[in-house]
Write a structure and sequence with these properties.
Its main location: membrane. It is built from eleven helices and no strands. By secondary structure, it is mostly helical. The longest helix has 31 residues, at 101-131. The protein is globular and about 60 Å long.
Length: 307
């Protein structure tokens, strides 16, 4: 049996964190536009560029980057948990053999569940910080006044109870299929290409990363909208805004969205989400692959990325 270098997992984690931070920073304004469209139901502008222009005009040039640090912090923690769990489970299960699409899906699902349970409080806080100071069109939204990440945790626990930090957990658990589907398609497409060539080009990695994320995002987007609303949790006239977000709560929000805006209301902000997540995922995976390969080359570790 092959001996696994104990530093291999750490290289994967560091590479993924660097890739995620770079990609999220570059495309952060797109995520800002997406979140505004999901939460602020009465905003009339529907296109990404118009929403961003409104934000800059009303709130300042740097407003599209509001909440960058909390999001980056959450992203680092989230990706650390996800990639560490994913690669650890894969090393245990595969044990030097060739992986399969089915195994990648199962491992991705388990890693996603662990990630949700551990990091949801961070995402609840960063969602609220990102929207703090926004010029909402919806007068039912109750504004927040947090001084930072720690103060946000303190106020939420004091005013809403500690379980409020896990608002949106149920839809988040359902959404673990998103990264699972993404990596299933990514790994599957990569294996198919590697059958025809010995090495993938940067363009190959970018394209298959974009395709994989686009499929996963489109399938799960309505649930992501509900997740954002529950995490924000500042709609004063929302009688169904219960902690954790039960199945009944999720169905309530889906029904309300369709009743008010039609079936397309479930996909409000999808343009911004696709642009942001597809480009972010593709760039993240590109940086991840390149950093991993370069590090292993320097370390003299061979075939560390073969399955």
């Amino acid at each position: 049996m092959r001996t696994v270098n104990p530093t291999v997992g750490l290289v994967h984690i560091i590479s993924s964190l660097n890739g995620s931070m770079t990609a999220m920073t570059v495309f952060f304004p797109l995520d800002t536009a997406r979140l505004r469209l999901q939460v602020d139901e009465k905003r009339k502008s529907k296109t990404t560029h118009m929403v961003l222009l409104e934000i800059i005009k009303e709130e300042g040039l740097l407003a599209p980057y509001r909440g960058w640090f909390p999001v980056i912090s959450s992203l680092c923690c989230s990706n650390f948990v996800y990639f560490y769990t994913f690669n650890s489970l894969k090393a245990i299960w595969v044990k030097g053999q060739r992986s399969t699409t089915g195994k990648d899906l199962v491992i991705g699902f388990v890693a996603g569940v662990v990630n949700v349970l551990l990091t949801t409080p961070l995402w609840v806080v960063n969602t609220r910080l990102k929207l703090q100071g926004a010029k909402f069109r919806n007068e039912d939204i109750v504004p927040t006044n947090y001084k930072g990440i720690i103060d946000a945790f303190r106020q939420i626990i004091r005013d809403e109870g500690i379980l409020a930090l896990w608002n949106g957990t149920f839809p988040s658990l359902l959404l673990v299929f998103n990264p699972a589907l993404q990596f299933m398609f990514y790994e599957g497409l990569k294996r198919q290409l590697l059958k025809k060539r010995t090495k993938l080009s940067s363009l190959d990695v970018f394209i298959i990363g974009a395709i994989a994320k686009a499929i996963a995002t489109t399938v799960t987007y309505p649930m992501q909208t509900v997740q954002s609303i529950l995490r924000f949790g500042r709609h004063s006239l929302n009688p169904e805004n219960r902690t954790l977000g039960s199945l009944r709560n999720v169905l309530y929000h889906l029904h309300q969205r369709v009743r008010r805006f039609g079936i397309m209301g479930l996909y409000k902000g999808l343009e911004a989400k696709l642009l942001q997540t597809v480009l972010t995922a593709a760039l993240m995976l590109l940086v991840y692959e390149k950093l991993t390969a370069a590090t292993f080359t320097v370390m003299g570790v061979k075939n560390a990325r073969k399955h």
